[in-house]
From TrEMBL:
Gene Ontology terms for molecular function: GDP-Man:Man(1)GlcNAc(2)-PP-Dol alpha-1,3-mannosyltransferase activity; GDP-Man:Man(2)GlcNAc(2)-PP-Dol alpha-1,6-mannosyltransferase activity
Species for this entry: Solanum tuberosum
EC numbers: 2.4.1.132, 2.4.1.257
Name of the protein this chain belongs to: Alpha-1,3/1,6-mannosyltransferase ALG2
Residue intervals passing through the bilayer: 79-99
Domain Glycosyl transferase family: 242-334
Biological or metabolic pathway of the protein: Protein modification; protein glycosylation
Primary localisation category: endoplasmic reticulum
Length: 362
């Protein structure tokens, strides 16, 4: 790493809506870590509600400027994607014409701003892709498919125009290659920058009875039924006969305090398993997607096929060995601190931005 004083940069970040979601958490972490390394950071967004945001956005550590809040988010509850594109393009145009040059501009989520930002010849443009949007959009009718066709085309073309593309996991990188086939054929490969958690916000818990926690949004794709079915099998002794164990002391919580975490869906990355491990809690997760890269099977938790019997078997391991949860929890905390802390995230992001600013495209 270069001496600190030789790599100070003026960095702009464009994000659609600075609320309190996972993507916003990543952007706030990026801004905080880059600022702590001596860079001047400025976030541009179309929405920032000071009553519903991460507290760091009010700290003054980095600047925030809002443009385009007057533009609609939808038109009669339709055309959300088009409105998001227009709002982000307006933010990008304001940055282009109203602000001096930046060394690096980091664009998040919406790639349509990339060609606009490329008009700022003095700046390198980095795009962070959480997951290809065209795979998240519904195409249940012919009209929806027609509507999405130009949007999907624009997404691929504009994404490929960035000087550097970052994704949140190797899983997303492989999906990126299989989705944006033209970019992959041209040799455009994204680099992986894992999101992070602030491990200092989690304290070691007091000893409590064994409780399995499933924390998800209440929607079908989160497959909450898997947790309930698996727990029912455990209580019915269908996997192991838990002799000598008072099963009344073993419970399943579908929301609440961190105890034992489940992750059921095929996550692109999955920030909550990291938060659980940072809170000294081992994780039981599906053996697919991002958790494969964050959960160390048999060390910080268990990776299972998405069946009730597989999950029930993993749950039984903790019931049979009362000390396993504590031991795995300690290992989980150390694993996150060493590989997925905000400090590590900041160091990796800084290296990517410093290198691209100097023309060292990976």
């Amino acid at each position: 790493m270069e001496k600190k004083g030789s790599s100070k940069m003026n960095i702009a970040i464009i994000h659609p809506d600075l609320g309190i979601g996972g993507a916003e958490r990543l952007i706030v972490d990026a801004a905080m870590e880059l600022a702590s390394l001596g860079h001047k950071v400025h976030i541009f967004t179309s929405h920032h509600d000071k009553n519903r945001c991460f507290e760091e956005t009010l700290s003054g550590v980095f600047d925030i400027t809002v443009y385009g809040a007057f533009l609609p988010r939808h038109i009669f509850y339709r055309l959300h994607a088009v409105c998001a594109y227009l709002r982000c393009m307006f933010v990008a145009l304001c940055l282009l014409f109203m602000w001096p040059s930046f060394d690096v501009i980091l664009a998040d989520q919406v790639s349509v701003v990339v060609p606009i930002l490329k008009l700022k010849k003095s700046a390198k443009v980095v795009f962070y892709c959480h997951f290809p949007d065209l795979l998240l959009a519904q195409r249940t009718t012919i009209l929806r498919r027609i509507y999405r066709k130009p949007i999907d085309f624009i997404e691929e073309i504009t994404t490929g125009m960035a000087d550097l593309i970052l994704v949140n996991s190797r899983f997303t990188a492989s999906t990126f290659a299989s989705t944006f086939k033209n970019l992959d054929a041209c040799g455009i490969k994204p680099a992986v920058l894992y999101p992070a958690v602030n491990v200092d916000q989690f304290e070691k818990p007091d000893a409590i009875k064994l409780n399995f926690l499933s924390i998800n949004r209440f929607e079908r794709k989160k497959n909450i039924e898997l947790a309930i079915s698996a727990f029912a099998m455990v209580h019915a002794h269908e996997v192991h006969d838990h002799q000598g164990v008072n099963m009344n002391d073993v419970s399943l919580t579908v929301a609440g305090k961190f105890l034992q975490f489940f992750n059921f869906n095929d996550e692109h990355f999955g920030i909550v398993p990291l938060e659980a491990m940072a809170a000294y809690k081992p994780v039981i997760a599906c053996n697919s997607g991002g958790p494969v890269e964050t959960v160390k099977h048999g060390v910080t938790g268990f990776l299972c096929d998405p069946s009730p019997r597989e999950f029930a078997s993993a749950m039984s391991n903790f019931i049979q060995d009362p000390h396993m949860s504590e031991k795995m929890g300690q290992d989980a905390r150390q694993h996150v601190a060493e590989s997925f802390s905000t400090k590590i995230f900041g160091q990796h992001l800084n290296r990517y931005l410093v290198d691209i600013a100097r023309g060292k495209k990976e």
